[in-house]
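Contributing new records

If you add data, match the layout below exactly. Sequence lines come first and carry their own label; structure lines follow with theirs. Keep one chain per record. Anything else will be rejected by the validation script.
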Amino acid sequence: MKTAGALTCLCLAALSPHQVLAGEDPAHPGTEHRTDDNGTDPTRVSRTVQLKFEHLALRDGFGSNTLKLWYSQPLGEGYSAIFKLPVTQVEVPGNKGAGLGDVSVQVGKVFGLTREGGHVVQGEMIFETATRPELGANQNVFKATYVRAIFLQDGSILAPSIVHNVGVWGQDDRPRVNLSTLDVYYVPKMVDPRNLVTFDPNVNYNWQNDNRFASLAVTLGRNLGKSPFGGNHFVLVKPAILVGGDRPNRWGVELTYRVIGF
């Protein structure tokens, strides 16, 4: 209950009249072309709502389904906040019902931004709010991310990143989360600007149990034009495949409805 109260206070603070700013941070060099923002540039900070549905094919023939609500809010001077609310259903013997997963709050900062690229740092606190053990990590996890975005001359984006997840407190009888990810994110320039494609290969190492695995995700999306809520809206599909004997799941697919700049 204390965690839920803290989350409510954070949400109200971010949505207060003193914090709600324009749909995009005006410091970005591309702000004058804000209609081309499709959510693929990690240095663009725009007000965004996303509704996501993710299916994961777990090991041993089981699966999970998660409905996620994401809200992103620019805070000015390159700062932003993202609130994530998941509702998850995992196929386990004796209980296949859905429940609340681990809610999280992320704060990011874009800096060193030029026409050639920029830097992004993010800190995300993932709270132990799952209503059942199989729906979350069973501990409070801090996720740290650094992204180096490079704007290529042909209009494409290359954005390698390093991510580390670590359990900071929670159930002592559960293995502590301690996972590092090296990610190479690439966004090609599309001939039709209404279309978007991203490629996202990564390698992962679990320091807790010496596990290694890799994955590749490809996102395909389409700009549907002006949304009824303001800004532009998009539909996206992101299939992913994992390789390696230590992989936590075999494959997954994520469907997203996104509204940007409302």
